[in-house]
Design brief:
The protein has about 90 residues and is mostly helical. It contains three helices and no strands.
Length: about 90
């Protein structure tokens, strides 16, 4: 447990940020899971629409410093390649 006043305040702030970060990360993972489901089923239109939602969620997570910029970029790249692969079939 923190002892000094500033450490106590930092702990409170950290707890508040944790809630927002978990919510943002959860939104990203739900979107990715939905996208992968559409890809597995071979639904092009739904996958493309969900890809936009995933990219939006990832960009918001980067903006809020929940995940790193390059990690989001890598995820977007791999997911878009996955969607592109079902388009060619």
């Amino acid at each position: 447990m923190p002892i000094t006043r500033s450490a106590k305040k930092a702990l409170r702030a950290s707890d508040r940020k944790r809630v927002f970060n978990l919510a943002r990360a959860g939104k990203v993972s739900k979107s990715v899971k939905t996208l992968k489901k559409f890809v597995a089923e071979g639904k092009k239109k739904e996958a493309l629409a969900e890809l936009r939602n995933v990219q939006k969620a990832l960009d918001k997570a980067v903006k809020g410093k929940t995940i790193l910029k390059n990690a989001a970029s890598r995820k977007k790249s791999r997911l878009s390649a996955m969607v592109k692969k079902i388009e060619s079939k």
